[in-house]
Amino acid sequence: MKQIFLTLLLLPLIFLGCKETTTSPIITDIDSIYIDGNSSYSFYSTDKIDLNLTAKVVHTNGSIGDATDSVFWSSSNSSVLVVNKNNITNGIKNSGDADIIIEYKNFRYTIPVHLIALTDFNISAPSQDINSTGVYLLKASGNFEDGTQKLLQTNFVWDNNGSFDINETDYNTTININTTGIYEINATVFPYDDDINKTKTLEYNISE
Amino acid sequence: MKKLLLFLTILSSLYSEATFYVGSSIAYQYEILSTGKKKAFNTTENINLKVGYGDIKAYSVEFSVDYAKNDSNIVSPNDEDKYGYNIELLKSFDYDLFFIPFVKVGFGSGTMKAQRELQTKISYGSYNFGAGIYIPINKDFDLEFGYLYKTVSYEKFTLLDETIELNSHQNNSYAGINFRF
Description:
The structure holds two protein chains of two kinds.
Chain A: H1 2-10, E1 30-36, E2 41-44, E3 50-52, E4 54-59, E5 64-66, E6 72-75, E7 81-84, E8 87-90, E9 96-104, E10 107-116, E11 118-124, E12 134-144, E13 149-151, E14 156-159, E15 165-168, E16 173-177, E17 181-189, E18 198-206
Parallel strand pairs in A: 2-10
Antiparallel strand pairs in A: 1-4, 3-8, 4-5, 6-9, 7-8, 9-10, 11-12, 12-13, 12-16, 14-17, 15-16, 17-18
Chain B: H1 2-14, E1 19-34, E2 39-54, E3 59-68, E4 82-92, E5 100-113, E6 121-136, E7 141-154, E8 157-158, E9 163-164, E10 167-180
Antiparallel strand pairs in B: 1-2, 1-10, 2-3, 3-4, 4-5, 5-6, 6-7, 7-10, 8-9
């Protein structure tokens, strides 16, 4: 019995010969985070923004991984730009600057975003005059501060006081007029932005 | 698991001719760490101070604190020394020899400062299993030689794109002295 105990007690001493000590970390660390894509963005204020961005983490060993779900996403000005997790959409303002921000504890990265402001706009029925019952296509186009003219996609609303049907898609709006009378069609841009809130009206007399 | 060990500890003390004792020991520690993908090794010395209650020839329960000098850099470029505590239950066997063999089980916990971006203090927990012998010198003092194995789980490390788990197998050979009241 005595020999057995002593033998068992001596067995662990075998590892006393082990002298290894690791002096370089085997677990890498976080060096930085960033948003994959452009270093800045510029959008026309009535273009429909629908960006899905990706956050990356750079490790101290040089490897890069996906951190989209780990970081906290935000907008520096949600009136200009709405950030919902990694999805970026329009705010309610016609002009301004905002940053897309990602953060995780001490780490932070921002991307500046600039809105190109709408200066004026027009609505029209480009294909034909509206003077009888039927379905008509309406368009809204705008002039922007950089001189560009383009169709409006978002941040404007059509209104006809409920007198006929309006069907809207991003670029095309159709109206369905099925009775005679005098109709007003209103279009308002940036209804929640007091700096530019403007309404344009078309009036039609439907006689047949 | 911890509650069960504590319950067994308390239960065991009721059935022994128990006395309080204090002790200290020095251990030679060899630890094999693994993340699953990578391995690391740490060889160091460990100083342990303990307070126990029990019968040297039956059961006892021990609470100990330990300090391990750490020269390795495994979780960061500057890993510092380790401080921990352990609670262990011992069962001794009286075979009427000049020594008294024992086995012990328990658990422990500890902490270590490190130089990481998100974690400057790393915690760990362990389950402990050991065996050894007491060699009584007189009625008050006894020498203790033993081997203690610890399976250690360290706090998880987040890298944002993944979480790293670090576990280790720790081998301790130790020698110490106890004073029984």
